[in-house]
Amino acid sequence: MQPSVSTHALTLLTKAGDARVDDWKDLFYLLTFVSLVMHEGQIEPREMVWIRRFATGRGNSHLLGRMAAIIDGGERNTTEIEQLRRRAARGLSVGEKRRFIYNLAQLCKAQGSMSTARYVAILDIADNIGVSDIEADAIVHSVYTVNDTVMAAVGVLTVGSILYFARSVFVPLVVAIFITMIIYKVERLIASSLGVRRFRWATKLAATVAILAGFSGLVAAAAVAGNDIVSRLPAYKTQFDGAVGNSHAIQSTLAWLREKGLLDQLRTLPIGDMLAAFVGSLVNLVGNSALVVLFTGFLVFSSSEFKGTLEEMSDKIGTYMTIHTLMSLVTGLCVGLLCAAFGIDFALFWGLLAFLLNYVPSVGSVIATAPLMVLSAIQLHSWPAIVAFIVLLEAIAILTGHVIEPKLLGKGLGLKPLAILLGLIFWGLIWGIPGMFLAAPLMVLTRIFSSYFNITRGFERLIASEPI
Q: 20 to 30 Å CA-CA from 33: which of 25, 222, 424, 467?
C-alpha cells in the first residue's frame, strides 16, 4: 500500500531541480530520514517540515525534489540506501555519527512521541553505521520534548524544595549512607581476608566500630587542635604584623592598594561572617553525629544485601567513597608530615583539615592551603624555605587529586569539571557547607543512578567524562 500524503503536505517539499549527488553525506541523511518516517506507512506534515528545514539549513535544497518524488510515489531504492550506509560506516567520523542519530531521534519526536517501531529502526541504523545500541539508546533519550523539559524542571524544583526544607534529616542520613558504603567495603575485605562466611554480623560490627572510631578520633583531634590555634591567635597576629611591617614589598603593595581604593574594599569583605558560617556548619554536623551513628547502625545491621541493579550501584559508589576517603587520608598525612618537617605549628590540625577539605571539590584544596601559605610566611624566615614549602604543598594536592586518584577510580566514575562545579553550587545552595562536602560523592551517585534508566541517560552523558 502506498502511503497517503495530503496535497498541502506535498507542497512543503516542492521540487527545486534535479538531485545532485555531489555530497553523499547529505543524500544519505535525507534518504534515511524519508525511509525512517515511511517505515510505518505514513508521513506527517510536521515531519516533512523538519526534513525540509534540515536540507535547506545545510544548503542542499536541491535534494528536496528527490525527496518529494519518493514520498509521492513510494519509490525507495533500498540498494542505494544500503550502499550509502556502508559508506557512512567508513566515512563518517564518530561525532558525525552521533549527531546523525540525534537528528533521527529529533525527527521521530517531531510529533511529540516515538513509537517502538521507529525506536527499533533507529537502533538498527545505528548498528549499521557502527554506533553501539547502548550509545544510540543514550542519544535517543537525550532528546527531550517541551513536555519532558517542563516535567524535568518541575521535578527538580520539587525535589530541591524537599531536600532544602528537610535538610536537618537528609544531611545526617546521606552522611550515614556514604559511611555505610565504606563499611561494606571494609567488611567484605575483612571477611575475605579471614575466610569468614558465617557470622557476618561480627565482621560488620568490627568494621563499623573501626570506621566510626576513626572518624570520631579525627573530629576530636581537630577540635583539640582548633582550640589550641584559637589560644595562639594573638601571638600569630603579632608575628604577622611584624612580618608585614618589615617587608618592603608588602608595604609597597599595601600602599598601591590604598591609593587605588582597593584596600578599603577588601576590608569590607565578609570574611569573618564566612568563617563563622563555616565553623557553625561544622559544629552542627558534629552535633548531629549521634543521628549519623544511629542511621549508620540501622543501615548496616537492619538492611539485607542488595541484589541486581542496587548491588551494582552500591558497589560503584562504595568503590568511589573508599578510594576517595583513602586518598583524603593520604593527602592529610602528607600535609601533616610536611608541616612537621618544616616546623609549622599544629601539623596534626592542618593534616586533619586537609583530609576533611579534600571532600570539597575544586575549592577545598584552596581553602586548605591558603592559611598554610600565610602561616609559612610568618614562621619560616627564609624565602627559599617558604617557596619550597608552598611548592611541595601544591605538589601533594596535584599528585593525589589529579594523578593518583583518577587512575585508581578509572574512567567509569569520572565527571566533567563543569558538572562538579555546578554540583558544588547546587548542593551548597541546598545544604550549605555540608552540601559542599557531599557535592562530589552526590554527583557521582547521581551519575551512576541516571545511567540505569532510559529517561535519564541524556543527563548521564551530559555530566560524565566517559561512559560507564
A: 467
Could you give the CA distance from residue 90 to residue 96 in angstroms, rounded to a whole number?
12
Burial profile 149-177: b = 16 or more Cβ within 10 angstroms, e = fewer: eeeeeeeeeeeeeebeeebeebbbbbbbb
C-alpha cell at 57: 539549513
Tell me which of 34-38, 40-44, 116-120 is least confident.
40-44
In the predicted model, is pLDDT for residue 111 greater than 60?
A: yes
pLDDT of residue 3: 41
3-class DSSP state of 123: helix
Residue where the block lists cell 619560616? 380
Closest to 423 (Cα-Cα) out of 454, 400, 388, 450: 450
Handedness of CA 243, 249, 250, 252 (dihedral sign): positive
With both helix axes pointing from N to C terminus, report the angle between 24-37 and 94-108 in degrees, rounded to the nearest 10: 30
Q: Is the pTM of this model over 0.85?
A: no
DSSP 61-117: GGGHHHHHHHHHH----HHHHHHHHHHHHHHS-HHHHHHHHHHHHHHHTTTS---HH
Q: What pLDDT digit, counting tens, does each position of 414-468 carry? A: 678 788 888 888 888 888 878 888 888 888 888 888 777 666 766 777 777 765 5
Residue 213: CB partners within 8 Å, gap ≥ 6?
none
For helices 167-194 and 417-450, the axis angle rounded to 10 degrees is 70
Which phi and psi (to 5°) does residue 412 adopt?
A: -70, -15
Amino acid making up residue 396: I
What is d(CA 193, CA 187) in angstroms, rounded to the nearest whole number? 10
Q: Say which DSSP state 311 is in.
A: H
Residue 145 is placed in which grid cell? 520534548
And the C-alpha cell for 378?
610568618
DSSP count for the chain of H helices, then E strands:
22, 0
Cell numbers that stand for 200 in this block: 557476618
3-class secondary structure per residue, 243-268: HHHCCHHHHHHHHHHHHHCHHHHHHC
CB-CB contact of 101 with 30 (8 Å): no
Is the CB of residue 451 less than 8 Å from the CB of residue 191? Answer: no
The whole-number average pLDDT for the span 211-219 is 75
Q: What is the pLDDT of residues 257-291, one digit of tens each?
A: 677 666 666 666 555 556 556 556 656 666 667 78
How far is residue 454's CA from residue 457's CA, in Å, rounded to a whole number?
A: 5
Q: Is the pLDDT of residue 19 over 50?
A: no
Instruction: List 66's β-bridge partners, or say none.
Output: none
Write down the pLDDT at residue 338.
Answer: 92
